Amino acid sequence: MEKEVFDQRDMTILIVDDEPRIRDFVRMNLEMEHYRVIEAGDGLEALEQLREHLPDLVILDVMMPEMDGFETLRAIREVSTIPVIMLTVRQDEHDRIRGLDLGADDYVAKPFNPRELLSRIRALLRRSLMPPPARKTEIVVDEDLKIDFSRREVTVRGKKVVLRP
After folding, report:
1. Comparing C-alpha atoms, which of 25, 66, 21, 22 is closest to residue 46?
2. In the chain, pLDDT over 70 holds for what percent of residues?
3. Phi then psi dihedrals of residue 32, to 5 deg
4. pTM (two decimals)
5. Among 20-24, 83-87, 111-115, 137-141, where is mean pLDDT lowest?
6. What is the overall mean pLDDT for the chain?
7. Mean pLDDT lowest for which of 2-11, 17-26, 76-85?
8. Rounded to an integer, what is the distance from CA 135 to the centroid of its chain?
9. Exposure string over 30-40, b if 16+ CB within 10 A, otherwise e
10. Is the model more confident about 13 or about 160?
11. Which has more pLDDT, 110 or 133?
12. With 0-12 CB in 10 A as exposed, 13-18 as middle and 19+ as buried, what is 118?
């Protein structure tokens, strides 16, 4: 199996669901993979846990008392780009689109396969930990034309072109 680019023991995942049975099931599967897990039973508690523990990923239910998952996601996105997976029984197209448009990184319907959820978590964490791609500052159009954005220079046939600001 491919070596992970991160150590799961260093990763904290916040599970937000009002059903203790679901939280227990997801927590058990995550802990078997050596993730640290924190839990919240509703959106308000989730926001507190987010501020206090700064998790690496959030698994978020939609249908919860007090503050539903969509409202919670909106509040999370106001302060963080943390990866969020919506995990919910609400699986119609409108709800999936709404969740993704509000900023969810993935949307998984209940009932779910725990191995697939773990795979989606690993994929999101890998992407979130990757350094941003290096910006290419020089473009070689052909042997006659080169553009260097960092120096703000254009070279045509080996001679610098004088540019206005």
Report:
1. 66
2. 91
3. -65, -25
4. 0.75
5. 137-141
6. 89
7. 2-11
8. 22
9. beeeebbbbbb
10. 13
11. 110
12. middle
- Percent of the chain having pLDDT more than 90? 64
Which residue type does 21 have? Answer: R
* Burial (Cβ within 10 Å: 0-12, 13-18, ≥19) of residue 63: middle
**Structure tokens, 16:** 């937000």
Look at residues 1, 51, 55, 63 and name the one whose alpha carbon lies nearest to residue 30.
Answer: 55
Taking CB atoms within 8 Å and a gap of at least 24, the contacts of 132-138 are none
**38 has which bridge partners?**
14
For residue 164 the two structure tokens come to: 């206005």
- Regarding predicted confidence, which is higher, 127 or 164? 127
Question: Left, alpha or beta for 126 (phi > 0: left; psi -120 to 50: alpha)?
Answer: alpha
Distance, in Å, from the CA atom of 13 to the CA atom of 33, rounded to the nearest integer, reads: 12
Q: Which residue has the tokens 């699986």?
A: 91
Burial class (CB in 10 A: 0-12, 13-18, 19+), 25: middle
> What would you measure as the largest C-alpha separation in the chain, in angstroms?
70
